Amino acid sequence: MDSDDEYVPNTRARGLTNAEGAYRWEDEYHRSWDVVQEDSGGSLAPAVNGIIDTAKRRKIKPMAPVHRGIIRNLVLVLDASLAMSDTDMRPTRFYSMISSASVFVTDFFSQNPISQLAIVVLRDGLAVLTSKLDGNPQTHLDNLAQLRKSQVSGQASLQNGLELANVLLSQTPQYNTREVLLVFGALMSNDPKPISQTIHKLVENKVRVKIIGLAAEVAICRQICTQTNMGESNSYFIALNEQHFQTLLSDSLTPIPVLKERESAAKSTDSAEPATAVRMGFPKRQLHSMSASLCACHQTLTKQGFFCPQCKAKVCTLPMTCPVCALTLIMSTHLARGYHHLFPLQPFNQTQGYKNPCFGCSVSLANRSQFECPKCHNIFCVDCDVFFHENLHNCAGCEVQNTDVQV
Amino acid sequence: MDSVDDTAAQLAKGVSYDEEIQSDSCSFLVVIIDLHSNGWLNKSQISLWKVLESLTVFLNAHLALNSSNELAVLGFNGLGARVLYSTTTAGKNADANDIANGIHLKGTMIRQFKKFDESVLSSIKAQIAEAKAKNVNGSTSVSGPLSLALSHLNRRIREKSSMRGHILIVSASGDDMGSKYIATMNTIFTAQKLGVPLDVANFGPPKSFLQQAAEFTQGSYLEFSEKDAEGLVHYFCSTFLVEPAVRKYVNMATKSNVDFSAVCFITKKILEIGYVCSVCLCIMQEIPEDNKCAVCHSQYE
């Protein structure tokens, strides 16, 4: 047996400790109302506005332009064991998880249009493939709706779930990412064999596992996450409540950075893991043709569709792999949806003392927090700042000014 | 007419009663006017002033439709984009300034409309004159004014839950994208997410990206040639005036055959089958001879 197989107890669990490494319950008691200070006029408004603004901006994270795996393959493993019938999330953990997962699937495909997803369910000690690895969000949503009607039962098996995910992911091409996102409500796992063997397989196959626990921290989950992420321990989380759970899920929408070792290997030698140019088709849409014809994907009569440029087969929706010639069919706009991950907007710096209204929405900035774009030096309000970084991914100031003017 | 009756009957019966259509729902219209001087010089197209005549009638109609409707007018040319008029800031000016500003009412003219017309037209003239004085010939992408328009809409929609937004782009110049492909696509996706339809009134050569923008956001894309000059008001009011909330009940005039073709990043040719870099997602017609991505310089297998 090798040393990795032994269970190494984590004496000071992350997430429970503060900056000094002490447990939260060993901390001094903080009175949250002491933080709010009155200004010279005795008003609380500036302090309260400050707190609100900080909360709004919490989601904006500095995004260094790193090499990210844009084409993703993700297996969503959902726990449907008896532990999921707990009612700490309303109505039960299971229903809450299915609702959040449906939102996640929709968002996942809008942000990662050429990626693929599969759904695996853990119940009765088995791992059941509920939704095949596929790029069409609607089939996954339908399958999730079906799953909603089923009951939770038995124990969960981490090993069976991960083994199945590993098999699914091992068929995918090398240039794609291989990810597992596991929602685990149980505190125990019913495994047929030592799970360490499975972890080795996952590491070998370069599968990266992220686990969101719904109950309490489980040591083996942390071990799985750490080992499959090259020792980085930032992929195991415990959801505190429904909202926190949704936040944790939505964190997985952004493509993960390619791991350092892989990246440096790719740079140093071209044998390691070079990029690939993938052959793809950009089909034309045919609208309202005179006669209906069968589509190659569902074998139904339709009057409109997209024609594969290689084999002229008709498909109903994009993106899709052509059912006849296996060419990946997409729209150029699907690719464009992924670009903002590659060219992220720089975070704005907080400033003060400007009299002009917000450059974006013309709201008055008096007594409000102000943010400056490091590139165009225009001043924005907190709402525009959040809007630019979370939705638009453009800075209005840079777009308006940065022109190719020939004077 | 039958379809209109059907819809009315449906609404009356409450079969598809929509909460969006309420008496207090109002809309915020942002008009983006292309003021590139070279865009309007072509003899075979409608002149800018002719368009503005119809446009002001349309904008007055928008304001008259509902007292809580709001409006912003943005202009863009080689110098960049700017807000020419906005009801949120303009409403505060007292009427007493009117006489000082030289605004005189004729006949049965309504003061607000006259005031609005004057201020929009004078700021449009000012922006054109400025570009002329500085001798600016370059062009800017529509992504700038669109980003600005969306941040205005984002604020108003957030502040007032009954507010619905829509955007009208009055476009003329030849190049609709410039070098800002990613930024423009970002604005289109954001409009889609906010539920803001992008309408396009195109007076210049056909533009595939604006067409895609309208298609994605359920807006209408209309091209106008010289023969439409007399009926512009009718086009504007029957298509672009329709509020976002009622659009699903109306057969909108639009050009439906949208071209989603991809363009090679290197040769700029339109492709049907191409190669996509797995690292940076750039589209290429052929794999370059040195086996390296032209954009991100990744080495290929």
UniProtKB/TrEMBL annotation, chain A:
Its main location: nucleus. The keyword Transcription applies. It holds the Pfam family Ssl1. GO terms for molecular function: zinc ion binding. Keywords: DNA damage, DNA repair, Metal-binding, Nucleus, Transcription, Transcription regulation, Zinc, Zinc-finger. One of its GO terms (biological process) is regulation of transcription by RNA polymerase II. GO terms for cellular component: transcription factor TFIIH core complex; transcription factor TFIIH holo complex. A zinc finger (C4-type) spans 308-325. It comes from the Eukaryota. It is found in: Nucleus. SUPFAM superfamilies: Cysteine-rich domain, vWA-like. Residues 73-253 form the VWFA domain. Component of the general transcription and DNA repair factor IIH (TFIIH) core complex, which is involved in general and transcription-coupled nucleotide excision repair (NER) of damaged DNA and, when complexed to TFIIK, in RNA transcription by RNA polymerase II. NCBIfam families: ssl1. Belongs to the GTF2H2 family. This is General transcription and DNA repair factor IIH.
Automatic annotation (TrEMBL), chain B:
Pfam families: Tfb4. GO terms for cellular component: transcription factor TFIIH core complex; transcription factor TFIIH holo complex. InterPro entries: TFIIH_Tfb4/GTF2H3, vWFA_dom_sf. Signal peptide: none annotated. Keywords: DNA damage, DNA repair, Metal-binding, Nucleus, Transcription, Transcription regulation, Zinc, Zinc-finger. GO terms for biological process: nucleotide-excision repair; regulation of DNA-templated transcription. GO terms for molecular function: zinc ion binding. It is found in: Nucleus. Component of the 7-subunit TFIIH core complex composed of XPB/SSL2, XPD/RAD3, SSL1, TFB1, TFB2, TFB4 and TFB5, which is active in NER. The core complex associates with the 3-subunit CTD-kinase module TFIIK composed of CCL1, KIN28 and TFB3 to form the 10-subunit holoenzyme (holo-TFIIH) active in transcription. Belongs to the TFB4 family. Component of the general transcription and DNA repair factor IIH (TFIIH) core complex, which is involved in general and transcription-coupled nucleotide excision repair (NER) of damaged DNA and, when complexed to TFIIK, in RNA transcription by RNA polymerase II. In NER, TFIIH acts by opening DNA around the lesion to allow the excision of the damaged oligonucleotide and its replacement by a new DNA fragment. In transcription, TFIIH has an essential role in transcription initiation. This is General transcription and DNA repair factor IIH subunit TFB4. It comes from Starmerella bacillaris (Yeast).
